[in-house]
Write a structure and sequence with these properties.
The protein is an all-alpha fold and 83 residues long. It has one domain. It has two helices and no strands. It starts with 12 loop residues before the first helix and ends in a 9-residue tail after the last helix.
């Protein structure tokens, strides 16, 4: 049974959908602004279009995968502290 109180505006499905569209548009505008900015490439690849966006995304994915792998070695049983 749903609570009769009104949901907070940040948990409503229509608001979440609008926020995803808004954040997506902001990210697309940021990448599109790369057309108007001069970049001096120090390593060659850092002068490519949208380098900051795809490099940041790739770095984030690699950090998450590394953390997941590290968690395999560091996790303990549920009863570890029940001695």
């Amino acid at each position: 049974m749903k609570d009769r109180r009104k949901d907070h505006w940040l948990v409503r499905k229509d608001t979440i959908r609008k926020l995803w569209w808004l954040f997506g548009a902001i990210l697309a505008a940021t990448v599109a602004a790369d057309f108007f900015v001069y970049h001096k490439a120090y390593f060659g690849i850092d002068g490519t279009f949208g380098f900051g966006a795809w490099f940041g995304f790739l770095a984030c994915v690699l950090m998450v995968l590394f953390a997941k792998g590290l968690g395999v070695f560091l996790k303990r049983r549920d009863t570890y502290y029940d001695r």
